[in-house]
From TrEMBL:
Alphabetized GO MF terms: FMN binding; oxidoreductase activity, acting on the CH-NH group of donors, NAD or NADP as acceptor
Native source species: Chimaeribacter californicus
PANTHER family: FLAVOREDOXIN (PTHR43567:SF1), FLAVOREDOXIN-RELATED-RELATED (PTHR43567)
Protein's name according to its UniProt entry: Flavin reductase like domain-containing protein
Domain Flavin reductase like: 14-163
Requisite cofactors: FMN
This protein's UniProt keywords: Flavoprotein
Similarity section: Belongs to the flavoredoxin family.
Pfam name, any one: Flavin_Reduct
Keyword Nucleotide-binding: no
Length: 193
């Protein structure tokens, strides 16, 4: 049973605006090869249409696949998925197929065909690479336009995150370095002054 529901385009940037560690998924143009990597650097850069910046080293298999296919996925791993998220960031996709090695279930995105991970993740976004951004040839930063997004309604609904003690296993993770992570914490509501 999936708890994922579509997220409105105007709320897609909220899936990343709290700075979580992410999984970047990619596929070859023909879909015969796929990869997943862990990244700590991503950010929303525009609201409408929703656009995202990610950092993917030019020497990685993920970068090769993203540039070849023109698409990528972003999945937001949860506290329950920390070990797997760390593991896929510690192995090269050029050496082995990480989805098989780490037994990660994924379905092909309806818009792009990129692998999308729901089990162990709180949200995903399908993105189209924006080559017109220009910086991709020189830098490791890639820009993408969000084509579709979905999130687990147990932790993201009504256009925002709902982190509670009861759904702690679904909280996003934030990498501090050396395999150490912190979880998204208690939400506090601002009051009008």
């Amino acid at each position: 049973m999936s708890f994922f529901q579509p997220v409105l385009p105007e709320h897609a940037s909220r899936l990343l605006n709290h700075g979580p560690t992410i999984l970047i998924t990619s596929r070859s143009r023909d879909g015969g090869q796929r990869n997943v990597m862990t990244a700590a650097w991503s950010t929303p850069v525009e609201f409408t249409p929703a656009r995202i910046a990610i950092v993917v080293d030019k020497s990685t298999l993920s970068r090769t696949l993203i540039e070849e296919s023109g698409v990528f996925g972003i999945c937001v791993p949860t506290a329950a998925f920390i070990d797997t998220a760390y593991a896929v960031g510690s192995v090269s996709g050029r050496e082995e197929e990480k989805f098989s090695r780490f037994r990660i279930a994924a379905q092909a995105g309806a818009q792009t065909g990129v692998p999308l991970i729901e089990a162990g993740c709180a949200a995903w976004l399908e993105c189209r690479l924006l080559p017109e951004a220009g910086a991709q040839e020189k830098y490791d930063t890639c820009f993408g336009e969000v084509l579709s997004a979905a999130a687990d309604t147990r932790v993201f609904n009504s256009g925002r995150w709902h982190f509670t003690l009861e759904n702690r296993a679904l909280h996003s993770i934030h990498h501090l370095g050396g395999g150490q992570f912190v979880l998204s914490g208690e939400a506090v509501q601002a009051k009008p002054l």
